[in-house]
Design goal:
Length: 212
């Protein structure tokens, strides 16, 4: 079994200590951080997600797997973020109102910081008004919204509408993402950019901040 498969297996069992040890071992052996993230941690979390959907595991098992995932991600963080990169722009990010999923949002934040963007993290369960007031107060170039639930993705449309009502729609870009989000949805709510994963989100954000 490859080391990334071992990481995935242990993450699925919520074995935080083993996941940390294996991630560190993979790093020490020279495995790339993106490969450890994608083939190890995220692969394991996808299996848990499928089992959750099929009622083969329940919230407590998902939570311990999420804890193990976070522990592994923390070890990868310094490798995914390059030091000393000059800020290319400022964004605020959050998971929308009613939604507590933050692992993907945290990955997007990490990748954006790695590309030299200044990121204001609003956390989870963020009201549309909070995105707007933060963007205004901090002169953000982009508002980034994450949603993992079909029941909360509609809040992204409210963020776009709130930005319009506040008169800042022409000054701020709005990026959306998360498992249920699609390009069609992004177009339908009038957001500016959809990306399916954290690395593409960071690339797109740099493009949006540097193009005038
Ligand atoms: Co939840 N949950 N959950 N959950 N959970 C899902 C999302 C679900 C798909 C599981 C399933 O049924 N298969 C399902 C949603 C169904 C639906 O709406 N269609 C679900 C449900 C139903 C629920 C509850 C309602 C369960 C309940 O209580 N009955 C509940 C809701 C709580 C709430 O939010 N109000 C709930 C709770 C939880 C936990 C708390 C137990 C835990 C969250 C812990 C945490 O985040 N701290 C949890 C988890 C872990 C999951 C799964 C298993 C994994 C999510 C995850 O972290 N994936 C998930 C199943 C799945 O997705 N396979 C599931 C790893 C992460 C890296 O991926 O977040 O997709 P993701 O991020 C990706 C991309 O989407 C993208 O980049 C990331 C990686 O490159 N991305 C962006 C994300 N945001 C972006 C923003 C961007 C661009 C890209 O631009 C701004």
């Amino acid at each position: 079994m490859s080391i990334t498969d071992e990481i995935s297996e242990n993450l699925q069992k919520g074995r935080l200590k083993a996941v940390k040890e294996l991630v560190q071992k993979a790093i020490d052996e020279g495995e790339g951080p993106e490969k450890i993230l994608n083939d190890g941690l995220m692969a394991g979390m996808n299996v848990i997600g499928e089992k959750f959907k099929n009622n083969e595991v329940y919230v407590p098992e998902v939570l311990v797997a999420a804890r193990a995932m976070n522990a592994g991600v923390q070890l990868l963080k310094p490798l995914l973020i390059k030091d000393g990169v000059k800020a290319k722009g400022r964004v605020c990010i959050g998971t929308v109102r009613g939604d507590l999923h933050d692992i993907g949002k945290n990955l997007v934040k990490m990748m954006m910081e790695g590309k030299g963007l200044e990121v204001i993290d609003l956390g989870t369960d963020v009201a549309p008004e909070a995105f707007i007031s933060t963007a205004v107060e901090n002169k953000c170039d982009i508002i980034c919204c994450s949603a993992l639930l079909t029941t909360t993705m509609g809040v992204m449309g409210e963020v776009v509408e709130c930005a319009r009502k506040a008169g800042i729609r022409d000054n701020v870009k709005i990026m959306v993402g998360g498992a249920p989000i699609t390009q069609e949805f992004c177009d339908a709510i009038g957001a500016d950019c959809y990306t399916s994963d954290a690395a593409s989100a960071a690339d797109a954000a740099v493009r949006l901040c540097t193009q005038e």
